[in-house]
Amino acid sequence: MYYEYSEDQLIEQATEDVLKELGWQVITAWQNETFGENGLLGRDNKSEVVLEKHLLAALTL
To answer: What does residue 54 show for φ and ψ, rounded to 5 degrees?
Structure first.
């Protein structure tokens, strides 16, 4: 019997499900992300792991 396991099946999908249950908006951007100020997430490149614009807005609430 062969089972194919991937990071998406084991971790990423489970995490996404929990975040959605908690009311978070989940965006899967790894295949279709555009960069720049008007891009999908508003970051300049893949090395920006903290979305400062969204973090600062959340911290000032």
So the answer is: -75, -35
